[in-house]
TrEMBL record:
<keyword id="KW-0472">Membrane</keyword>
<dbReference type="Pfam" id="PF03619">
    <property type="entry name" value="Solute_trans_a"/>
</dbReference>
<feature type="transmembrane region" description="Helical">
    <location>
        <begin position="166"/>
        <end position="185"/>
    </location>
</feature>
<feature type="transmembrane region" description="Helical">
    <location>
        <begin position="238"/>
        <end position="259"/>
    </location>
</feature>
<feature type="transmembrane region" description="Helical">
    <location>
        <begin position="279"/>
        <end position="299"/>
    </location>
</feature>
<protein>
    <recommendedName>
        <fullName>Organic solute transporter subunit alpha</fullName>
    </recommendedName>
</protein>
<feature type="transmembrane region" description="Helical">
    <location>
        <begin position="31"/>
        <end position="52"/>
    </location>
</feature>
<keyword id="KW-0812">Transmembrane</keyword>
<feature type="transmembrane region" description="Helical">
    <location>
        <begin position="72"/>
        <end position="91"/>
    </location>
</feature>
<keyword id="KW-1133">Transmembrane helix</keyword>
<dbReference type="InterPro" id="IPR005178">
    <property type="entry name" value="Ostalpha/TMEM184C"/>
</dbReference>
<dbReference type="GO" id="GO:0016020">
    <property type="term" value="C:membrane"/>
</dbReference>
<feature type="transmembrane region" description="Helical">
    <location>
        <begin position="205"/>
        <end position="226"/>
    </location>
</feature>
Length: 332
């Protein structure tokens, strides 16, 4: 105990306190800090304005229901940048801004799957295009090391299971975020507390499992449709989605671990963990601004419809012949 008290006495008091208030940050900003915060705020504002302008274009030029799906997917980077800006100015609200960003991105994961289906023409057209075809399911993040897994026949039931696998994350992530906030108000949820008795030690790993399960159906769908959708630049679109996933989830987790281990030094008025969170928010704003510009170039345009599949044409012709046959017999 004496050793611990001696160690704490050599540490600046603010390094052991909660994140500072917004007014404390404003008071301690120097010229460089004012320039940095102003530039990052401008970037997040521009990301949001560019996204809103893009939504107007998509609403006018893209048919339903694909336009709603594109708006959801396109909003990932601007929403994360906006929440990061709020978290940068108001450090004590970081838990709420991070949960808002993560809950929105959980919906985006599901919407990316829907977008892949919509680009193929919708549910019915997708099933016709892939009639009697099989999908390879040995892909990441669940089964990339299992090439022996059998291929799965494309059916309406298989399509439903893929949607369900992605949708469960969007629903459960939002519910668990609300539960975490409720527990936090009662002092039972603390992200920095790694004790087995704290609820964060149980909720966060469970969310990680849900994330992996939800990413698998999207990866299956992309891997089996990327050649068909190459004309709509689906590979670049999917790469932007993957980049947002890595930066918003993995990068933030790595910085948080470094801060909890004390590798990121304390800098009053920021504790080690608060400073790590601040650095993460600042990086996120710059990265999401760049991704917003790239996705704008990919989505703010119209693409030619996919060419009809010869196999699908044969099915339609056979259906028409079977429907017309009774009329010819009746006429005879």
């Amino acid at each position: 105990m004496d050793m611990e008290e001696a160690l704490n006495s050599t540490i600046h008091p603010t390094c052991l306190q909660e994140p500072p208030l917004a007014i404390d940050i404003i008071k301690q900003l120097d010229v460089f800090g004012v320039a940095l915060y102003s530039m990052l705020t401008l970037m997040s504002t521009m990301s949001l304005l560019l996204y809103l302008e893009e939504c107007v274009f998509i609403y006018r030029k893209v048919p339903s229901p694909k336009k709603t799906t594109i708006m959801w997917v396109n909003g990932a980077a601007p929403v994360i940048a906006t929440m990061a800006c709020f978290g940068m100015w108001i450090p004590r609200a970081t838990m709420f801004t991070d949960m808002t960003s993560n809950s929105y991105f959980a919906v985006v994961v599901y919407k990316v799957l829907i977008l892949l289906i919509e680009e193929c023409g919708g549910n019915e057209t997708f099933l016709k295009r892939n009639y009697k075809k099989t999908f390879k399911i040995s892909t990441g993040p669940c089964c990339c090391c299992c090439p022996c897994l059998p291929r799965v026949l494309v059916t309406r039931r298989m399509l439903f299971l893929l949607k369900l696998g992605a949708l469960q994350y969007a629903i459960l992530k939002t519910l668990l975020s609300i539960l975490s906030i409720i527990l936090w108000t009662n002092g039972n949820f603390n992200i920095s507390d790694l004790e087995i008795t704290d609820t964060a030690s149980w909720i966060n790993p469970f969310i990680g499992v849900l994330t992996i399960i939800s990413l698998w159906p999207v990866a299956i769908m992309f891997m089996n449709t990327c050649n068909t959708l190459r004309s709509v630049r689906i590979i670049l679109k999917y790469a932007m989605y993957q980049l947002v996933l890595v930066l918003s989830q993995l990068q933030m987790a790595i910085i948080s671990i470094l801060a909890l281990d004390g590798i990121i030094a304390c800098s009053p008025p920021f504790s080690s963990r608060a400073r790590g969170t601040m650095l993460s928010q600042q990086l996120m704003i710059v990265e999401m601004f760049i991704i917003t510009l790239v996705t704008r170039a990919l989505y703010r345009r119209t693409y030619d419809p996919l060419p009809s599949d010869p196999h699908e044409t044969d099915i339609d012709q056979n259906t028409n012949i079977s429907l017309q046959a009774p009329q010819w017999e009746h006429a005879a």
